[in-house]
Every structure is written in C-alpha cells, then in structure tokens.
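Protein: AI-2E family transporter
Species: Sulfoacidibacillus thermotolerans
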Amino acid sequence: MRLLDHKDRALYTAVFVLIVLTCLELIGQLREFLYDMWDILWAILLPLVISIIATYVLRPIVDALVTRKVPRTLAILVIYALLAIFLFVIFLNALPLLSLQIQSFLRQLPGYVAAIDGLIDRMSFVARVLPEGVRVALEKALNSAESDLLSSLSRTLVGVKDMVSGAIQAFIIPFLVFYLLKDYSLFTALVVRLFPKRSRAAVAEILMRIDLSLGRYVRGQLLVMSLVGVATFIGLLIVRMPYAFMLSLLVALTNIIPYIGPFIGAAPALFMALSVSHGMLLKVLLVNLVVQQLEGNLFSPWIMGKTMNLHPLLILLAVMFAGEVAGIAGLIFAVPVVAVLKVIFDHVYHDAEEK
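Structure follows.
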C-alpha cells in the first residue's frame, strides 16, 4: 500500500509539473499580448497610484484641520488653493531655469558624447599594451558602454516626450485625490465588506497597519528626496558644475530607489563632469559622496527611522526582482509592496502563533 501511495504521489507530482510547464509555455506564447494588456492596465493604474501617494502626503493636514472643526470638504479646498499657490510660485521660479538648462544641455549633447567617445578611444589605445585576451574583453566592454550610453540618452528623450504627451491623463489626478481625501474611510469600509464577516475585523486591522506603514514611508521618502536634492544642488553650485539644477533634480528623483538609486542619479553628473575636466569629475564625485553620507547617516535615520523595519538584503533582492519584472515602476514600488506583504505576513503569523 505504501508503494502504491508512493507511486500516486510521484504521478501527482509529475502531472503538477507538467501543468506548470504547460502554463509557462502558454504565458510565453501570450507574452506580447500580456505586455500590451499591462500597458493598458498601467495607463489606468498610474494616475491612481500617484493619487494615492498624494493622498498620503495631504491627509495628515486635512485631518488636522478637521480636528479643528473645519468641514472636510472645505479643508481639502483650502489645501488645494494653498498648494496651487505654492506650485505656481515654484514653477514661476524653477521651471524657466530647468527649461533653459535642458535646452542648453540638448544643444551641447553632441559635444559631451564626442568627448566621452574620445575618452573611450584613448582608453582603447592604452589598452593595446595589455595581453590579447584582456584587451579584447576590455574593448568589448568599452564598446558596450558607449552603445548603452547612447541608447540610454535616447530612451531618456523618448521618456520626456511620453511624459509630456501624458499631461492630459494627469488632469484626472486632482479629482482622484479629492475623492480619496474626502471619502477615504468609506473606501476602506467597502474593501472590508468584500470579505466574510468573520474576517472583517482582521482585514480592517491589516488595512490600518498598511495605511500607517505606507503613510510614514511615502511622507518620509519625499522629505528625504527633497533634502538630498537641495544638498546636491548646493554642492554642485559650490563646485561650479554646469546644469546644477537639472542634475540635482535627477539625483533627488532617483533617490527613491533603495541602494542603487544614488548610483543611477549620480552617473549623468559624473559623465558630464568627465567631459568638462578630470578635476570637475573629482569635485562632483566628492559632492555625491558627501550627500550620500548625509542621507545615510542623517536624513534617513532622522526622518525614516524604523518605518519599514525591513532587512537591507530583503530590500535589495526585492528591488532587483521587481526591476527585472516591471522595470522602473518595479524599482520604485518594490519597497512599498514588500512592506505591505510583511504587514500581512506578520498579522497571519501572529494569529497562527496565538492559535
């Protein structure tokens, strides 16, 4: 009988493996269709995700006004008015500077590419004294780096074009934020009611913990990004690096990606500094090192603290996996997704221990 059971288990395992392989083959055949569906789904989800982030930022202010007997709708409208004035002042001062720097950068881009190309050629010339195998491998790496640089610049320009074309889609975001701020508790109650009655209390507690964790992370991360951007801008101004505002804005935006974000943000500044002079390269490198030390030892510990309470190795693995699966969106949202899964796992594991 045991032998028969063993054979049955082996048969079931083989059937299960066959079904899994068949499903993977079908997914592979439908890959292009799934990519198209993901593009459509992401076009719908992106405004919602941005609206949720904005809601996490603004909701504490709305709640503070509500506790002072201000009607919730009026509180939201007041915040919208103040935010519109603030953004108008920022754009009035920062947008022209950013626009001028981008236009100047695009005009001088061929010169930067030529300077880097010349540097690569000089490195190839020096590499000729190396052994044959090492020289061939190094030349392949240099040629690959050159092509990757040009393709990344091309993708960046296309991304800017796509971002401008999506401005109409972004028009819906203020309306989504308004209703999320106004009826947040109603939406939460609707989600809870989707579950059986015996599970609603647990679901409500999980949602509350997720809300608390994500709210702290989003607000803290935005503040850290702002401080990193300001510190980088000041440092680049001190060393007289061209396009300081544009480069510091890029550093601030990429800082949202854990661990690898600072390297991504610093790379364009270092490439541009290399085309200026070796001294400027050292200065820009020093600025980025100082800013990252401030971020790692002052800004993040002071603002973020133990918000996520996630091991660095888990964060790094999650970022690598999400980047492969979903690209830039995966890099940005890897940590929040892992944080949500951790809240759910902790709650389920705690209930299992109590039982």
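Remarks: The radius of gyration is 26 Å.
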